[in-house]
């Protein structure tokens, strides 16, 4: 069974985070600059939450709040579901499907090792299936 570590080995690991005391507007600027739809929220070196485009839509826009005057810690999603490097790809898909989430931080011994998105999982699964098909075709024609 393929693990999160296998997936991380195939992608460039970038841990993009913001401090919990910045404004929503500043966090959105980071997300735009990095072309990402979610950012981890850190308090020093400790993971305290995640802020996503969905949080923005539901907790800022629909609530009529100002992104310039609202701090990330007020609208981030705390109590994150996280995974470890040894968790399986299937487990990640199951968590994302059941919990209706698109991002999972990877945490080992309270240290953030990265984050995977539903897009990362789908891309990895497709590449893995293509490799399996190629191997089977070689075996059959060999």
From TrEMBL:
The keyword ATP-binding appears for this protein: no
InterPro entries xref list: CBS_dom, CBS_dom_sf, CBSX3_CBS_dom, Diverse_CBS-Domain
PROSITE patterns to which the protein is assigned, alphabetical: CBS (PS51371)
Keywords: CBS domain
Transmembrane segments: none
Domain CBS: start-end pairs: 9-67, 76-132
Source species, domain of life: Bacteria
CDD domains from the UniProt entry: CBS_pair_bac_euk
Cell division found in the keyword field: no
Name listed for the protein in its UniProt record: CBS domain-containing protein
Species of the source: Pedobacter lithocola
């Amino acid at each position: 069974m393929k693990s999160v570590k296998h997936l991380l080995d195939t992608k460039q690991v970038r841990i993009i985070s913001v401090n919990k005391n910045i404004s929503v507007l500043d966090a959105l600027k980071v997300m735009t600059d990095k072309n990402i739809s979610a950012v981890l929220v850190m308090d020093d070196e400790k993971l305290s939450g995640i802020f996503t485009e969905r949080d923005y839509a539901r907790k800022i826009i629909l609530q009529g709040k100002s992104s310039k005057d609202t701090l990330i810690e007020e609208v981030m999603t705390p109590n994150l579901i996280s995974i470890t490097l040894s968790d399986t790809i299937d487990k990640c898909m199951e968590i994302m499907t059941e919990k209706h989430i698109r991002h999972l931080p990877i945490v080992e011994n309270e240290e953030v090792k990265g984050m995977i998105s539903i897009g990362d999982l789908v891309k990895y699964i497709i590449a893995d299936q293509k490799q399996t098909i190629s191997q089977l075709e070689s075996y059959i024609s060999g």
